[in-house]
UniProtKB/TrEMBL annotation:
GO MF, any single term: ATP binding
CDD domains xrefs: PKc_Mps1
Region Disordered, residue ranges: 1-49, 78-110, 129-150, 257-317, 356-434
Keyword terms, alphabetized: ATP-binding, Kinase, Nucleotide-binding, Serine/threonine-protein kinase, Transferase
Protein known as: Protein kinase domain-containing protein
Biased composition (Polar residues): 85-99, 134-144, 257-298, 305-317, 394-407
CC per GO annotation: kinetochore; nucleus
Biological processes annotated in GO: meiotic spindle assembly checkpoint signaling; mitotic spindle assembly checkpoint signaling; nuclear chromosome segregation; protein localization to kinetochore
Positions with biased composition (Basic and acidic residues): 356-369, 411-421
Entry-linked InterPro entries: Kinase-like_dom_sf (IPR011009), Mps1_cat (IPR027084), Prot_kinase_dom (IPR000719), Protein_kinase_ATP_BS (IPR017441), Ser/Thr_kinase_AS (IPR008271)
């Protein structure tokens, strides 16, 4: 305490924008333990009192109140060395630190918060599997991600072991308490400075942003300061800490654009890593976007991110750099570490910086390098950061929860990792530096794409929603080639070929960029050569495809449509059917014109992109050979419910001894199944559940597909034309596009004389002022003149003609009389 008292009096001026939530004095009695802890403390030194006074002075009547008191907490860093100076302060039996030397702020001076969402780093105890690990957990129920999408990965951060000097600011949610701690651990010493907020998690109606604003302020104000060890050169260390905090301020003062941005309900984490400099990791939560996807959505979180970042202004952080904290925390920073600290102002954690081409960044391992060689993964939040001599790392995180979270972590990195990376750099003398976290980013051709969550996974791939540095949302398809035979890998690679061929076609999903880690394989695919057909892919390489992002697929649209119809007892709307059926046909027509057979047409492979359906997944597509309309497929794949009879029997011989081939008609059959599903809500063979049952019935030429009656007879005709068992009888797309369902026949125009006759009667009817008799006579006359009733048969005899004429003249006479009466009246 004396030491602390001898330290220079801190500047107590709080930052301008620092506001503290009001403390509810009545509530502060709730925690007896903390109360006792406070009362047992010796009275704070003068400067602490002044700090308290300053904090009180700047405590406005905030919305967030607290009903808890603050108690000093100590986080034990595992495997601390007994020789440390703090050892004397640790109770050997309980492992807890003694309270001596703890300098708590007075209860009154510590505002509390009910805000559960603006924690720096949250963790529940059960998600905190071992000491020294900080696990970030998120409220999944509040994750606003699209229901069809898989939840984004949460980010796990692990404290490094006690061997590493570190400084961190973090908060944990433990048993409903929120703890914000600022800890510095050193091999030689262990000194901790903690904020312990006994936070009753209670969701208030406070606006999220407001919560966010209060968050860091609460953290700053809810401070318990402790000095646990015999610290000899506090002032020196204080300077070191001040330096670190200065860096933290610098970092946080960066423009918001330096933080990467996540999509809906996203959190943004920014971390800066350097070898000897503290690692700084800031996570800010971005509120849910107003739009689901697209570039707009990409911009929204940026704004939020910006706003959040602004909470972490140097002003807000003034408290962190406060000499009081520096002194009392007595953070011992290894002089070797501090000596080599680079200026944090140089650590500009920008997405763009990470996006530099490989050449500019030195030997940066690719995503696939890291995938292949886990030892290269030095930048995982769960692990110690990598070779941080001058490395920077921005870690925008996936959407996590609606809860605002703010994570500031200041820690130096481990020299061991540097060695690890160096040794894993595949023989290169210089240590390989990786400036991005493969858990958070994909790198395709040197460009980084931040993961926003897994969209789905197909039979061979996984597809992720990603955002690029220019804030555009894409889908990133990753196909792992490990263990695949060369032919299959070659086939997967061909998807790139087809997508390249279909570039600029607006009803085909657009390939933005791609990378195949096995360059030889790609080269062969591009040159349509295959040298190693029977071999296997040697390296566990990957194919990365950056694609236009689709909001929803037709399968989900249909499910939604049928759900709506079930509740309203409606039948499917012909216009809705026409609208999408036409787009489906046009998309398939596009590939057929390019001599490509898709082979796996199904509703899930039509994506809605900005209101239009686009075709995806050319994984098993085949090019049609030059002089034939059919193709020979090497392997039989597809989706059973949509597979044509010939697809089941592909490469076999038919009754005439000809090899059965799959070509465009096979796609037409699949289209017929899709249309059937659009009309009836199920596929034509859905009642046959097993593969063999399906196989048997689909390959049986005598099997009759059942068609329930529909209001539009053209629809039945259309389905039948697609689902003809004999592939030669199936209509082609140009015909289908002209089918009467899409292009209804225009009724024949009546002769001009009849039109005029009708027009006269129409006029008379309109001008007779609603007279019932006149209207009726007009109607009867019109019926007599109706071309449908005036068939040649009805007028064949002179008698019939005379009868009709006298009928007409009688009606005309009556009508004239009627009009005269109306005129006279
Ligand atoms: N560009 C995209 N935008 C949005 N989602 C996509 C995109 N591409 C694919 N997906 C989603 O990922 C899923 C799997 O993608 P895709 O069909 O291309 O992979 P696959 O491995 O070939 O799948 P399958 O085995 O079903 O054929 C799709 O059903 C779709 O929901």
């Amino acid at each position: 305490m004396d030491r602390e008292a001898n330290l220079p009096l801190p500047s107590l001026r709080p930052p301008k924008n620092l506001v503290f939530p009001a403390t509810n004095a009545a509530d502060t009695t709730s925690s007896s333990s903390s109360s006792s802890s406070f009362s047992s403390s010796s009275s704070p030194p003068d400067f602490l009192r002044q700090v308290h006074a300053a904090l009180k002075r700047h405590r406005p009547l905030g919305i967030m109140q607290t009903n808890n008191s603050i108690k000093p907490r100590r986080t034990l860093i595992p495997q601390r060395e007994a020789s440390r100076s703090v050892a004397s302060n640790v109770d050997p039996t309980t492992g807890t630190k003694k309270s001596q030397g703890v300098v708590p702020l007075s209860k009154d001076s510590i505002p509390q918060t009910k805000n559960p969402v603006t924690v720096i780093r949250e963790t529940h105890e059960d998600a905190f599997p071992f000491p020294g690990t900080i696990t970030k957990t998120f409220d999944e129920s509040s994750n606003p991600f699209d229901a069809r999408r898989e939840q984004p990965e949460s980010v796990i951060a692990t404290k490094e072991d006690n061997q590493t000097p570190r400084t961190c600011v973090e908060s944990q949610l433990v048993e409903g308490k929120r703890k914000v701690q600022f800890a510095t651990v050193n091999k030689a010493t262990s000194q901790e400075m903690e904020w312990d907020v006994n936070n009753q998690v209670e969701v208030s109606n406070v606006d999220n942003d407001e919560m966010k604003q209060h968050n860091f302020q609460n953290m700053e104000s809810d401070v318990t300061l402790r000095s646990d060890g015999a610290v000899t050169s506090l002032a020196k260390r204080a300077m070191v800490v001040q330096d670190q905090l200065h860096q933290l301020r610098n970092f946080l003062n960066q423009p918001a654009t330096q933080s990467s941005v996540a999509g809906p309900s996203c959190a943004t984490t920014t971390s800066v890593n350097s070898t000897s400099a503290p690692m700084l990791n800031s996570t800010t939560y971005c509120s849910r976007l107003r739009t689901e996807s697209g570039s707009q959505s990409a911009v929204e979180p940026l704004r939020d991110s910006n706003a959040n970042s602004q909470n972490l202004t140097p002003g807000n952080l003034e408290q962190l750099s406060h000499p009081l904290l520096k002194d009392t925390s007595a953070m011992l920073i290894d002089p070797r570490t501090t000596a080599t600290q680079p200026s944090t102002s140089a650590i500009h954690s920008q997405f763009k910086e990470l996006d530099l081409p490989k050449e500019q960044k030195g030997s940066v391992p690719e995503a696939h390098d890291i995938a292949n060689n886990p030892s290269l993964v030095v930048d995982k939040p769960t692990k110690e950061r990598g070779p941080a001599d001058d490395g920077t790392d921005v870690q925008p995180q996936c959407p996590m929860s609606r809860n605002s979270s703010l994570n500031v972590k200041l820690e130096p990195s481990k020299p061991e990792n540097k060695e690890k990376v160096a040794s894993s750099s595949k023989g290169t003398s210089a240590p390989r530096k990786r400036s991005y976290d493969p858990d958070l980013f994909f790198k395709v051709n040197g460009k980084l794409y931040q993961r926003l969550g897994k969209i789905g996974s197909g039979g061979s791939s996984e597809v992720h929603k990603v955002i690029s540095s220019d804030c555009t949302i894409y889908a990133l398809k990753k196909i792992k080639l490990k263990g695949r035979d060369y032919g299959t890998a070659y086939g997967f690679c061909q998807e790139i070929l087809y997508l390249n061929k279909l570039k600029g076609k607006n009803n085909i999903i657009q390939l933005i960029d791609y990378e195949v880690t096995d360059k030889a394989l790609l080269h062969e695919v591009m040159n349509s050569s295959i040298s190693n057909k029977d071999g296997r892919v040697k390296d566990d390489g990957c194919i990365y495809m950056v694609l236009e992002y689709g909001e929803i697929d037709l399968a989900h649209m249909l499910a939604q449509k049928w759900k709506e119809m079930d509740s309203s007892n409606q039948t499917i709307d012909d216009n809705w059917l026409r609208f999408y059926w036409q787009q489906i046909l046009q998309a398939v027509n596009t590939i057929h014109e390019e001599r490509i057979v898709h082979s796996d047409l199904k509703p899930a492979n039509f994506l809605l992109v900005k209101g239009s359906l686009k075709l995806i997944d050319f994984g098993i597509a085949k090019a049609i050979m030059s002089d034939t309309t059919n193709i020979q497929r090497d392997s039989q794949v597809g989706t059973l419910s949509y597979m044509s009879p010939e697809a089941f029997m592909c490469n076999e011989s038919d009754a005439n001894g000809n090899t059965i081939k799959c070509g465009r008609p096979s796609d037409i059959w699949s289209l017929g199944c899709i249309l059937y599903q659009m009309v009836y809500g199920r596929t034509p063979f859905s009642e046959y559940k097993t593969f063999w049952a399906k196989f048997k019935v689909i390959t049986d030429p005598n099997h009759e597909i059942t068609y329930e009656p529909v209001s539009n007879p053209w629809l039945l005709d259309l389905m039948k034309n697609c689902l003809a068992w004999d592939r030669n009888e199936r209509w082609r797309i140009p015909q289908l596009l002209q089918h009467p369902f899409l292009v209804p026949p225009i009724p024949a125009q009546p002769p001009v004389s009849q039109q005029q006759g009708c027009k006269l009667l129409q006029l008379v009817s309109e001008t007779c002022g609603g007279d019932q008799e006149a209207s009726m006579l007009c109607r009867e006359l019109q019926q007599l003149l109706n071309p449908d009733t005036l068939t040649p048969e009805s007028l064949i005899s002179r008698d019939q003609q005379c009868k009709l004429l006298s009928q007409m003249s009688m009606l005309c006479f009556q009508l004239r009389e009627c009009l005269a009466k109306l005129e006279g009246g």
